[in-house]
Amino acid sequence: xxxxxxxxxxxxxxxxxxxxxxxxxxxxxxxxxxxxxxxxxxxxxxxxxxxxxxxxxxxxxxxxxxxxxxxxxxxxxxxxxxxxxxxxxxxxxxxxxxxxxxxxxxxxxxxxxxxxxxxxxxxxxxxxxxxxxxxxxxxxxxxxxxxxxxxxxxxxxxxxxxxxxxxxxxxxxxxxxxxxxxxxxxxxxxxxxxxxxxxxxxxxxxxxxxxxxxxxxxxxxxxxxxxxxxxxxxxxxxxxxxxxxxxxxxxxxxxxxxxxxxxxxxxxxxxxxxxxxxxxxxxxxxxxxxxxxxxxxxxxxxxxxxxxxxxxxxxxxxxxxxxxxxxxxxxxxxxxxxxxxxxxxxxxxxxxxxxxxxxxx
Length: 361
Prior knowledge:
Largest sheet: 12 strands, mixed
Mean pLDDT: 84
CATH class: Alpha Beta
Shape: globular
Radius of gyration: 19 Å
Structural class: alpha/beta
CATH architecture: 3-Layer(aba) Sandwich
């Protein structure tokens, strides 16, 4: 790893400490440990599916055009339920401190729409709503030395607008990884996301389970921030790692994975929305420009004026509101076929002194 990457890694650690709540950290530590030993069961919003392999058959329903197409849905329309899936990819392994080699755990927190309008926070195990479903799926990747809970406001915003949002906890890059986070595992994370997509489609097709019939299996987007953005970018566009399920990509202060060969975004890939803080000293604006400028349309770049690396997606409420509105409108336009969402996105992306949006549809 280069000295520049090491310096960036140290900066990330310092930046996320201030925004990571102790209670959330303890909760996820427990879930991570349990994921290695728990039997199959569902209790208190935590679901332990039976072991499944990459070779399992995924049955998908025929898409029903018009079930949601063209329908404007505002954030706050739905309440937010949450279930934690203790997924284990038994076709791959991870080496724990001390040298123990175990099947690769990819614990995933899933937010989903519920009919409890106005409910505060996530309700564990709440009854999902199927009235307006199935709902598009967003797979979200967190950054290095951090947890998905740091992005809670953004993920809940997406869910309340009618999306199922699944946030895997990367087994070695999260802040509570055994032995401490290891950024060298970054190249393995695209396959973690691919595994989560496959697992969720499998659960959606089951007769029973917390996600049965909830996901629109033809409308899937990938998103991520920092190293999670690197991961999402590779899954959407790297020819050697690309997942054909994806219909849109949202890259928040991300770049190409530095440990892997460089690639160019090919024509015919998912529509791209990239965001970048102009004062980001961890993922420099030039890193976003390197993949965005040569990318073919449709593509959009949201520049957050004076924005830092993590703040616009977690604690900077002014810029977070812009990110919430622009990303949601982008996803509604390309996943929900909401024609009015394009106007909403362009309008929300231009805020004097706060943000500007470059559009190449």
